[in-house]
Amino acid sequence: MEFDELDAHALITTLHAGVVVHNPDTSVAYANPKALEILHLTEAQILGRDALDPLWQLLDGDKVPLSVEDYPVNRVLLTRNPVSNQEIGVIDGETTAITWVLVNAYPELNRGGQISKIVVTFIDITANKSEIPFEASLNSLSQQITVIDGTGLIQWVNDAWKGFSQENGAPSDEAWLYANYLSVCKAGSYVGDNDSSDAMSGIQSVMNGEATEFYFEYPCHSPTEQRWFMMRIRPLEWNGPYHYVISHENITERKLAEIKLEELATTDGLTGIPNRRYFDDFLEKEWLRARRLSQPVSLVLLDIDFFKPFNDNYGHVAGDKCLQQVGEALKDILHRPDDLVARYGGEEFAIILGNTDLEAAYQIAEKTRISIQALNIPHAYAKEAGCITISAGVSSISPNRNSSKQPNTLLKAADKNLYIAKEKGRNQVVAFTP
Fold first, then answer.
1. Which SS3 state, helix, strand or coil, does residue 354 take?
2. Is 3's pLDDT higher than 60?
């Protein structure tokens, strides 16, 4: 089939591009169905109108009203050259909505070389030109976001920030506007909140240009649940005065997973009490606290008497059960947050007692010895007692800022006293201050 055998009218009618044909006086001679659809017009509204009719309200790509000279039809008439890929916004006369089209236009010449028609074709590119609603985007985020100025005054907060504030009894939306974020941090630091103080220092480092970004993890527990958040602050990249974007993101799920992993790493798998690794960390921290406050810290090392013959004769299953029973008994004795019971290794356990002197530590160790014996775990291979017993060594030190003693001093003294308790016949407590 030859090309000139094609039905041009059928082709233009079914085309997915708009086609408008203008006469040389710019009046519209024809518009295909797609053109009417894109322009939201009827044939009666478009046919016979010229390109300068007030019906057409056209914009350039920057939303500036298009000059008459730049109308595609006029550009073709003035230059006799085609127009290629011109972006134009067409304003709907009733709704003022903008339809964006990509326009091409070319002249049709008669035998005398004069322009007989101007053919304008266009496609709808509105979807590609739609502006992103940035505020709506920020309001859809789960992070709580605020913008502050260079003095700390809050200029804007997103919906997540408002929702979190209201859920936690904070002021209404209006009260947050122009509240001072830095003042809130300062107030917290004044009452000894280290997290507020650290946040304040980090924010100031960004505001002073010492850092390009600051982020900080902090706990924010409610009466009903544990919560952790990540705060970030960065300068707002814009051409106006200095402003800063602060976000708070809930990281509770990650923190709980980290805590669970840490617990697994620092918990003895058999007895369920802290292991040697956790004991070492706890003792170091408790020693530093005792030195800072000039308070005593005491240590009890205890050992299950004749545990090897118990294991050899009753079996490892019974041995494991014995260790579990001893661990449970030790947990029941201690209730203060400054105290810790841990499995020190094998059949040896350790108790750290914060702000406890030697006499009080001895009494706790003796109470522990009695409680273990009261479990009445049969041990036919133990001398005299006939059941599981323990020996314990106790030591106590009150370190101060000028003291050269280290936690190892406490450990060595307790270990020495444990050795003495065993030498003296076992099933007893020996206390001595190094």
1. strand
2. no
- At residue 53, the 3 state secondary structure works out as coil
Q: What angle do CA 419, 282, 222 make, to 5 degrees?
A: 145
- Half-sphere exposure in the Cβ direction for 352 (13 Å, CA): 27
- For the stretch 350-377, pLDDT in tens is 999 999 999 999 999 999 999 999 999 9
The residue assigned the tokens 């000059």 is 67
85: number of CA atoms within 13 Å, CB side? 0
* 276, 379 contact by CB (below 8 A): no
Residue 407's CB is within 10 A of a number of other CB atoms, namely 20
Residues paired with residue 393 on neighbouring β-strands, in sequence order: 301, 430
Distance CA 24, CA 6 (A): 26
Please give the single-letter amino acid code of residue 175.
A
Domains with residue ranges and CATH for the chain? 3-129 (3.30.450.20), 134-254 (3.30.450.20), 267-431 (3.30.70.270)
| Whole-number Å distance between alpha carbons of 247 and 233 | 7
- Here the tokens at position 334 are 């201690």
> What is the tally of helices (H) and strands (E) in the chain?
16, 16
- In terms of Cβ atoms closer than 10 Å to its own Cβ (0-12, 13-18, 19+), residue 7 is exposed
Confidence of residue 1 (pLDDT cuts 50, 70, 90): very low
Length of the chain measured in residues: 434
pLDDT of 405? 78
d(CA 226, CA 290): 28
Per the CB < 8 A criterion, the answer to whether 124 and 99 are in contact is yes
118-154 pLDDT per residue, tens: 999 999 988 777 666 778 888 888 899 999 999 999 9
Give burial (CB, 10 Å; 0-12/13-18/19+) of 140. Answer: exposed
The answer to whether 33 and 18 have CB atoms below 8 angstroms apart is no
Closest by CA position to 397, among listed 306, 307, 287: 287
Q: Judge whether 60 and 66 are in contact, CB under 8 Å.
A: yes
- Partners of residue 144 on adjacent β-strands: 248
- pLDDT of amino acid 187: 83
Query: How far is CA 91 from each of CA 67, 75, 343, rounded to the nearest angstrom?
Result: 15, 20, 79
Percentage of the chain beyond pLDDT 70 is 94
**β-bridge partners, 108:** 117
Answer yes or no: are the C-beta atoms of 291 and 403 closer than 8 Å. Answer: yes
Helix, strand, or coil here: 230? strand
Amino acid at 128: N
